[in-house]
Amino acid sequence: MKWVGVLDRYVWRVTLGSFVVCLSFITGVFVLSHFLVNVDRFVSNIEGDPLGFVRIIEYYLALSPTIFVTVAPFVTVAAGMFAVSRLMGSNELVPMLFTGRSLKRVLAPLFVLAILMAVAMALTRELVIPSVYTLKDDLEHELTSKPGDKKYDERVIEADAVDIARRQVAHFSRYFVTSRRIEGLRLYDWTKPDQRRIILAQTAVWRENGPKGTGWYLVGGQDLFVRQYSAEPIDFLSGKDYPGFHPLRLRRLIREQRDLVDHSYSDLAALVADSPEIPEYTVALHSHMAFPLANLLLLLLALPFALRFERGSRTERVFFALVICAGYLIVDLIFRNLGNTGYMHPVVAAWFPTVLFGSLGVVMFDTVRT
User: Fold this and answer.
1) Which phi and psi angles does 205 have, rounded to 5°?
2) Rounded distance, CA 160 to CA 132, Å?
3) In this predicted structure, what is the pLDDT of residue 202?
4) Deepest in the core among 77, 105, 190, 370, taking most CB within 10 A?
5) Domain-by-domain residue ranges, the chain?
6) How confident is the model over 247-262, as pLDDT tens digits?
């Protein structure tokens, strides 16, 4: 007996067809809604630019990996419901069962697709999103910032603090992204317990080929040694001595510490290791690990509804799928907030929705009568 027979190939064609339709529809709705919200700014910013629409397309291509990891589980559930609806609507599912195949065997392509989607989500988050982050960030600024705004030509990030390495924190009053200039720098370097330093500077400018090499050139710089109660003038911070203080990484850290959506697993793991006392980092790391499993778990929970409503329409089945997805999102949001605010252990808060819906899915799928 061949592992992939004629019936398997047929179910695969139905499954992949449903998946392509659902992915196109859900992604299209997501992009269209985002475009309609920002269309006024897009139009005003590309006016007179012959390549303006090309930049908009390029922006959404750079945004597409983030969209994918956001909607993938719901695409999988919707595709599964449509595939089962098609098989049942054509009276094809029952004859397949009469051949002696179990329900799990008939629907195996759906489960394989869910597993592949989970793997694709994990790889996209770890490898793809970080590689297009800078391009997406630049295009987002160009297309959504209002011309005439002081921050339009020179991107300015107001007062913030960034963990540039373990036991190294940089504070600044303003950071000019385009010109790579910092105003009001305070750099705390606690890497050597016996030589704790605080580096102060009125301004710091990054130069790739300066007279002292690549690094930050300081104006009004002071190097304070806490334990020695001493201070020395300083006018240069080498990029080799502070590799985590590179402008590109600085910009990424600033954005990601404010919004953890674009973090990779390795970036979040580093943040958790450096700052275990901040629950948001732990919740984000474990939530990103748990969310890909929703492809399989929500499918297990949704399929029994499709299989029990034998006379129901496709609309009813899709409606129940949407209800299940909405319920998962609500529960996930509630427990993330509980973890972020410290009312629940961050790891428990991140994994609880997955365990809850996964358990319900396994129980309900096992109770389906064939």
Assistant:
1) -120, 130
2) 24
3) 92
4) 77
5) 6-146+284-366, 154-256
6) 877 766 666 555 677 7
- Parallel, antiparallel or unpaired: strands 197-210 and 213-219: antiparallel
- Cβ–Cβ under 8 Å, residues 365 and 304: yes
pLDDT at residue number 335: 92
Question: How far apart are alpha carbons 20 and 12 in whole angstroms?
Answer: 12
Q: Are 143 and 38 in contact (CB under 8 A)?
A: yes
Q: Which residues of the chain have pLDDT under 70?
A: 1-5, 97, 100, 145-156, 159-160, 226-228, 251-259, 308-318, 368-370
Distance set, CA 314 to CA 67, 246, 319, 321, 365 (Å): 26, 54, 8, 11, 19
Q: How far apart are CA 4 and CA 123, in angstroms?
A: 27
Distinct helix (H) and strand (E) counts, the chain = 13, 8
Would you say the C-alpha torsion 136, 139, 144, 150 has a positive or negative sign? positive
Burial 40-63 (b: 16+ CB within 10 A, else e): eebeebbeeeeebeebbeebbebb
Task: For residues 8 and 349, give the distance between their C-alpha atoms in angstroms, rounded to a whole number.
Answer: 39
Report the alpha-carbon distance of residue 170 to residue 250 in Å, rounded: 9
Non-local (6+) Cβ contacts of 73 within 8 A are: 117, 291, 292, 294, 295, 298, 325
Residue 73 has a pLDDT of 92
| Cα distances (angstroms) measured from residue 175 to each of 136, 160, 180, 307 | 19, 9, 7, 57
3 state SS of 120? helix
The one-letter amino acid code at 281 reads Y
Q: What does the block give as tokens for 242?
A: 């502070």
Quote the pTM value.
0.71
How many residues appear in the chain? 370
* Cβ–Cβ under 8 Å, residues 274 and 166: yes
